[in-house]
Recover the amino acids of this structure.
DNA sequence: TACAACCATGATAGCGCTAACATGATAGCG
DNA sequence: CGCTATCATGTTAGCGCTATCATGGTTGTA
């Protein structure tokens, strides 16, 4: 009775209507329905209206997995960052996200936890998803990762710092930022200047800032002592201050690797009754809002993080759209914010 | 000469080796190679070794898109939040991310910008990716979105607040949190208590806290005036303080909707020379680290955000693995942190 | 009127993988 | 020793969509 075929193997993924069913309902072929949805200009306006009506009526949701397989490209953008606990990366992701999402791209977020092996794993996975592009924080990758990416023909964008990039690169010069702050501290008359950072091995961009800082001090004939903490955050900043005063009683200025540390130290200095900047100057890096709300306001360097994400995304999109890329590298710069803490 | 078939239509996605090629290199069939990679226990150990060797040698990267299409399931978890600018969601995402990633799931992150239409769009897109589950912040959705999800047979997890959920639910009782803080302020002897929040229409969880707050005050026969700001952040907190003092000169305590506002106000009070808590008490919500580093420490309510993410992810994973779910709903609670600001 | 150029649509053949079923070999058992 | 149970592997047929080529109709042009 039933019109059922012998059908030895049935395997429908779900009860969701398929494009074919939409096409039948609209009285066109599947490919026309496909075009009506994805390349509207290739289809007669009236035909398209019929297809859209059928889509609406059947509650059709396109199977993007099938579409990606057939077209060998997804609208995924792989984004790899070393940490989600750090505002800095979050703001870059925000910039990327709003720009990519507006163009219909979907971000695949990966977190390496500062582990290059993990990065390699993530890259492998993301390649398996036929991502349209890869955005990764930083220029340092494992050899395996480089090899994998070398054979990949899609745009690769490295953000955060500038240097010898695999493909596209948007960032800022951290060494120069370190120099800039060191010069500022020298101008303020400081001669006993300490740098305090956390895990500079992982947070190697902070390490680059230290190098710039050190370069400037040593050129002036000064020492550039370093205290390295084993973790970051406000608490660590407070602890770092204590340690700094113990080990370098004569210190007149501390250049912290970031605003979290600097803010923690500054607030702790207030509790200890240390007058900032008269007895001790404190500087940070990042330009977080909190630094401009405490008294004295924190001297720091502001990096345009969200803009960095937006610019990176725009450049990737330009490339994906086949437009000419003028420059592979963009320096987003930074801005010295002089507060009352130095 | 060439062994080329007549091949009317060729369409290889890339030069990447395919599973079939790996299988040939290992001298097995494609399905065996597939099993060697995805169901190792179903394949003889020696065979598997040969396959893995071939994978290594050819630099094979599995095409996850094809795999998902064939198996009608991806290892994607859709995560929808209203904003990335708010630490609160970031920390929940962190908890989700670490837990899901450890089990081999990939998060698809969507940002609604507090727009339920946008949420609907995101849900549609994510369904199209055959996600294994959906995690969304909050219980409020558009009707279209509810309809779409009603016909979906995968786990749905709503996080942040508790209430009548679609499926699974992990969160805390914001009304009770508002009550809790109001009671604390009453205990401290305050009778002129003001609530200051931002965009309570969007941030309706803050609205729930206000309702709890108001309930307690009104039960005591007190008024519960509200000032609503048009944006959040430290600046807004400072501005909120100014406005509060203008409109309610006799206010003795301000209950801010979150720590950003409260911290901004507290730091601004210091600049204005207002003694906290003697002249004015200030309370917040969230339990951000900065609140415990300023002087006086901020009285606030800490919510276990990262834990909320971890728990939500674990529960979803339990469900996906077919294990029994004891309870659909989990209250992660909150903790009143009494600082010196009240 | 003949020809090219374009437009709208369709038939076909995959994309790379895995579910479902099938098969043959080996082990277990009375 | 014949029977079933288990294991290891293979064959087949899709998953739902789109690239490619083909086709027929319409318009423009000399």
């Amino acid at each position: 009775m039933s019109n059922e075929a012998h059908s030895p193997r049935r395997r429908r993924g779900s009860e969701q209507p398929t494009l074919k069913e939409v096409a039948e309902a609209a009285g066109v072929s599947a490919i026309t329905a496909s075009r009506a949805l994805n390349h509207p200009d290739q289809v007669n306006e009236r035909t398209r209206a019929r297809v859209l009506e059928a889509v609406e009526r059947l509650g059709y949701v396109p199977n993007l997995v099938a579409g990606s397989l057939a077209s060998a490209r997804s609208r995924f953008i792989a984004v790899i960052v070393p940490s989600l606990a750090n505002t800095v990366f979050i703001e870059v992701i925000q910039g990327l996200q709003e720009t990519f999402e507006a163009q219909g791209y979907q971000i695949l977020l990966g977190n390496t936890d500062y582990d290059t092996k993990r990065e390699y794993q993530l890259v492998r996975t993301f390649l398996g998803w036929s991502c349209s592009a890869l955005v990764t924080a930083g220029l340092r990758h494992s050899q395996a990762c480089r090899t994998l990416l070398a054979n990949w023909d899609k745009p690769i964008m490295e953000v955060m710092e500038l240097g010898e990039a695999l493909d596209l690169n948007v960032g800022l010069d951290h060494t120069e930022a370190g120099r800039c702050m060191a010069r500022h501290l020298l101008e303020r008359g400081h001669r006993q200047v300490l740098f305090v950072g956390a895990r500079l091995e992982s947070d190697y961009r902070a390490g680059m800032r230290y190098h710039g800082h050190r370069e400037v001090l040593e050129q002036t004939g000064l020492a550039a002592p370093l205290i390295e903490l084993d973790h970051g955050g406000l608490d660590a900043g407070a602890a770092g201050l204590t340690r700094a005063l113990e080990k370098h009683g004569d210190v007149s200025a501390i250049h912290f690797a970031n605003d979290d540390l600097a803010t923690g130290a500054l607030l702790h200095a207030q509790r200890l009754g240390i007058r900032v900047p008269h007895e001790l100057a404190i500087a940070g890096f990042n330009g977080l809002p909190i630094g401009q709300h405490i008294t004295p306001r924190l001297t720091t360097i502001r990096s345009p993080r969200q803009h960095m994400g937006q610019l990176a995304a725009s450049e990737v999109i330009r490339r994906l759209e086949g437009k000419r890329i003028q420059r592979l590298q963009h320096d987003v710069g930074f801005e010295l914010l002089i507060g009352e803490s130095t």
Q: What stands out?
A: Residues 8-13, 18-20, 30-31, 34-35, 38, 62-72 of chain A lie near DNA strand D (CB under 10 Å from a C1'). The longest strand of chain A covers residues 76-81.
